[in-house]
Specification:
Blueprint lengths: L3 H11 L3 H8 L3 H8 L9 H13 L2 E4 L7 E4 L11
Helix pairs in contact: 2-3, 2-4
Length: 86
């Protein structure tokens, strides 16, 4: 599982908007906003959270740590524009 903070951090590292992430993950913008609220593992459908995780990984983010111990993100691939490089 990933945390709300990891989703926010990943988007920031990639320099993409909530709308862009929603499009890549094939979920609604309201879903992205809901997942990014608060701290810890966001409540909701685990399938949706997995879609968001896979979308961010596909754009070059690696999730590190665990929700309980040192959750974080790092870029493993640097693209000029991660959305256009797909």
């Amino acid at each position: 599982m990933i945390t709300s903070g990891q989703i926010r951090a990943a988007r920031s590292l990639l320099r993409i908007t909530s709308n862009e992430l929603a499009e890549v993950a094939e979920v609604g913008i309201a879903t992205i906003r809901r997942l990014e609220l608060g701290e810890g593992v966001p409540p909701g459908n685990s399938r949706t959270l997995d879609q968001v995780r896979r979308a961010l990984e596909g754009l070059g983010v690696e999730f590190i740590g665990s929700p309980e111990a040192g959750p974080g993100v790092r870029l493993w691939r640097k693209d000029e524009d991660p959305i256009k490089s797909e």
